[in-house]
Fold this sequence. Notes:
CATH architecture: 3-Layer(aba) Sandwich
Number of strands: 4
Number of helices: 6
Largest sheet: 4 strands, parallel
Distance between the termini: 9 Å
Low-confidence stretches: none
CATH superfamily: Response regulator
Strand content: 5-15%
Oligomer: single chain
CATH topology: Rossmann fold
Amino acid sequence: MKVLFVCHANVCRSFMAQEFLKKALPNAQVFSRGMYADPAVRVPDKIRRFLKQNGIVPGEHMPVLLSKDDAARADFIFLMERRHLDMLTDRWAEYSDKMWLLRDFVFGEDKDVPDPIGLSGRVFEKNARLLEKTVHVLAQKLAAAQ
C-alpha cells in the first residue's frame, strides 16, 4: 500500500502524518509532498520535538513539491485542506477516486486539518494532537481494509 499525504509546504502536517503512519504501519510505503514546497525550507524544531516526544526520531527531510507522478503511484492521497483537494481533483481528475480530505476519510468530517506551524504552546499542541489522533485512526482503517 502506498500512501501520500499532501499539505501546503511539506514541513508540518504532511511530514508529521507521514512519520506517524510509518510508525503505525511499518509495511506501508508512506510519503509526503507539498502543494507549494520549497526545498530550502527546513522542518521547524518544534515539529521535530513533538515527534520525538511521541517516540519518533525523524531523519532529515527536504520538502518536495507534489508532482503528477506522485499522484499516479499512490494508492491513497490524503489532503489536509479542502482547497487543495479541490485544486487537485480539477488538475488531475484521473486520480480523483483516490484523493481524500483526511478528516473526511477518517471521521466523516468535511473539515481541514488545522495547520499548527504558526502556533505555539497549548494551541500548537492541540492541533498537533488532532493530527496524531487522526492518523492513528487512519492506520486502523487502512490495516482493517487490507
